[in-house]
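To the structural biology subgroup,

Please find below the input and predicted structure for Uracil phosphoribosyltransferase, which we are adding to the shared reference set this quarter. The sequence is reproduced verbatim from the submission form. If anyone notices a discrepancy with their own records, reply to this email rather than editing the shared folder directly, so we keep one authoritative version.
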Amino acid sequence: MSKVVVMDHPLIQHKIGIIRKKETGSKDFRQLISEIAMLMCYEATRDLKLEEIDIETPICKAVVKELKGKKLAVVPILRAGLGMVEGMLSIIPAAKVGHIGLYRDPETLEPVEYYCKLPEDIAEREVYVVDPMLATGGSAAAAIELLKQKGAKKIHFMCIVAAPEGIERMKKEHPDVDIYVGTRDEKLNSHGYIVPGLGDAGDRIFGTK
Ligand code: PRP
Ligand code: URA
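Predicted structure (tokenized):
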């Protein structure tokens, strides 16, 4: 069964409070999304495996710990997931980046795929799928299904604001995927927007509305 981790770190909660405000402009919104992603990445990578290796310090021989395998990938769901990539890479700079393009049909709320480009060796990598918003869960579930079809085995999902409906859908459709959430909101409204949420994350990151 997957675990759902809601990040209660005060810095994450403080920054989420700022991006919720309607007066926060695109420049600050982008910067904060990136900072939150960095802080969440630190927490979400807590279970990465380590191995011991022999080295020499300037003083003597020593045994130190190193990440085992080191094969990670970050996969943003376009567009809004792009806003989280830089923050993730500031913590795990050697990760490769794949892209999955999905948009929600405004009528049906079903995800429509328009792009997919992944690292060739995605099947061998531990994958962090990132998207600031988990609403109905349709986009995240579809992106993860696509990754599984391409052979990815160990997948995590990170989002900043989640609706209970999205979390439940993920647990049902992808019980093997751990979910890291910045905050769990109340509900979805009749247009599929998260309440209280922060509005349309893609539009706020890119200033398109
Ligand atoms: C937003 C968001 C998620 C999706 C969440 O993207 O970034 O991908 O909606 O909703 P869901 O859980 O109900 O699928 P959107 O479709 O608005 O596309 P955009 O990022 O290109 O604006
Ligand atoms: N996508 C968003 O960007 N915001 C929501 O509240 C729901 C889906």
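Summary notes: The radius of gyration is 18 Å. The mean pLDDT is 96.

Regards,
Lab coordination
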